[in-house]
Amino acid sequence: MAFLEDFGFRLLPARNEREELLFLKDIFPVSDMPLLSPLEFQKRYGPGIEQLENVSFHFIPIRPQYSRLLFRETEKQGELFRELLPVENTIRKAYLCHSSNKQIASGDIVLFYRSEDVRSVVAIEVCEYTFRSQDPKEIILKIGQRTVYSFSEIENLTKKEVLVVLFRESRILEKPISFDELSRMGAVRGSIQSIQKVKEEALPWLKQRIGE
Q1: Which SUPFAM superfamilies match (predicted)?
Q2: How far is CA 89 from each of CA 6, 72, 201, 206, rounded to the nearest angstrom?
């Protein structure tokens, strides 16, 4: 039951004719909704919608081979018919890197930028929380099967301190945002080779663009 509540489902007082429990989830915000934090908003109404006000936006670069696993909906139909990893079939996921970034906060919007091939923002996600560790067992304990990495790969990563970004998948962009477009609209600072915050002056355009 706690699992369902974590994804915005509410237990109704009534049961159906078979005496089964009934759960309800709102998919659109209501005018008289209570004041929610950006993360609580995402839990209640997501995926597919995000709280875009009073949060920061961040670009996170991701290589194609990992993007295919984290965001399988971006792949061509013929590539979908294969055995799935657990992380491919879950909303809650984790991103591991060696970035020194300390700006990403709970509820912030993270925009995954697929580098090397399409060079575009392909997915919009919401950060749950971040932490740093150099202990592979601690990382696995906290993220479980939310990552594309094996334990041995995580052990190798933790030769240096690792930044772990735990996030909720919200949606895949129907119209990916190319680097050229981001650069032209002043949203980026040079190439996106590491986590970077979206420039404030570009936010009005970006909020409109990701809604297209």
Answers
A1: PUA domain-like (SSF88697)
A2: 17, 9, 36, 28
CA distance 169 to 128: 10
- Model confidence band, residue 3 (pLDDT cutoffs 50, 70, 90): low
Phi and psi at 211, nearest 5°, equal: -90, -5
Residues 178 and 73 in one domain: yes
Both 37 and 89 in one domain: the answer is no
Q: 95 and 191, same structural domain?
A: yes
Check whether residue 83 and residue 113 sit in a common domain.
yes
> What is the reported pTM?
0.86
Distance from chain centroid for Cα 125: 3
Contact 91, 7 (CB under 8 A): yes
50, part of any domain: no
- Between CA 179 and CA 206 the distance in angstroms is 13
